[in-house]
Design brief:
Elements (H helix, E strand, L loop, with lengths): L1 H12 L20 H6 L2 H7 L42 H40 L23 H28 L21 H32 L3 H4 L11 H17 L1
Helix pairs in contact: 1-4, 1-5, 1-6, 4-6
Length: 270
């Protein structure tokens, strides 16, 4: 089951869509007119500036996750297929679409960055426990993917289809929200916060949480790309190529000796 997340993330990271390069620069939304400001409540206006500011222009670092890094100037190039009929679309709306794509890719990559090594670590144990074929046997212990192979296995194909359908459902829901909310639409906001983590949080706290999500997503996209390249070149599972990142602390001899010594002293004293 974990293989599908890794496979889908590979597609996300290596996708030709401009979102795969990340919209790291920020072209701000032009200053809102007085009529627009009157129509918006204070709450809506605060919500609107969480990801895209209604004032200012240029790379001033005001947008969440904007570090001024866009050497190819991709943030100002509209490659969205939906813009074919509107060549004069505002750069602010172009950037907003790129941010939505970046968030989706980042979230999927975070799942894959976890699923990829966990699958390689647990697949042998789960296969023995469930008495089922080991799905990573065909690939030499590597996660099934486009480059590694193994995707033709029936359980993998079925899982890929299920996850693809779920992603399509999220896309359709996202487009619906975008149409319904209009100017108040925020990239990546699906209204899903079951633990109410951001409920009642001040704007500064929300921006901080959003920046952490972006940075973790960007790091995850890089990590999954490295997993793919490493396994394609060296033909070995990433958990074997870089064991220091995937070996639990308790498995290190030095840690075991420390705990053995600590418990032996405690037992002696009792």
């Amino acid at each position: 089951m974990l293989s599908v997340t890794s496979t889908l993330a590979l597609g996300a990271v290596m996708s030709p869509h401009p979102s795969s390069t990340l919209s790291l620069s920020a072209v701000k939304v032009p200053t809102a007119t007085r009529a627009t400001r009157v129509a918006m409540s204070d709450k809506d206006e605060l919500k609107a500036i969480e990801f895209v500011l209604p004032t200012g222009a240029g790379l001033d670092g005001s947008m969440v996750g904007d570090y001024g890094f866009d050497p190819l100037g991709l943030a100002s190039i509209d490659l969205n297929l939906g813009s074919a009929g509107d060549k004069e679309r505002s750069k602010a709306y172009v950037l907003r679409d790129y941010r939505e794509a970046e968030l989706r890719h980042g979230r999927l990559a975070m799942l894959a960055a976890l699923a990829w090594p966990v699958q390689e670590l647990l697949s042998p144990s789960l296969s023995r426990a469930l008495r089922e074929p080991m799905l990573v046997a065909e690939t030499g212990g590597r996660s099934p993917s486009v480059l590694n192979g193994g995707l033709e296995q029936t359980p993998v194909l079925a899982t890929v289809g299920i996850f693809a359908a779920l992603i399509a459902a999220v896309d359709i829901y996202s487009l619906k929200l975008k149409d319904e909310r209009g100017e108040n639409w925020l990239p990546g906001d699906f209204g899903f916060d079951p633990l109410n983590i951001l409920g009642g949080a001040p704007l500064a706290a929300k921006r901080d949480m959003q920046e952490k999500e972006l940075n973790n997503g960007r790091l995850a996209m890089v990590a999954v790309t490295i997993f793919v390249i490493e396994e394609a070149i060296f033909k070995a599972p990433v958990v074997q190529l870089t064991p220091a990142f995937f070996t639990p602390l308790y498995a290190y001899p030095a840690v075991q000796e420390f705990f053995n010594g600590a418990f032996s002293v405690a037992s002696f004293r009792t």
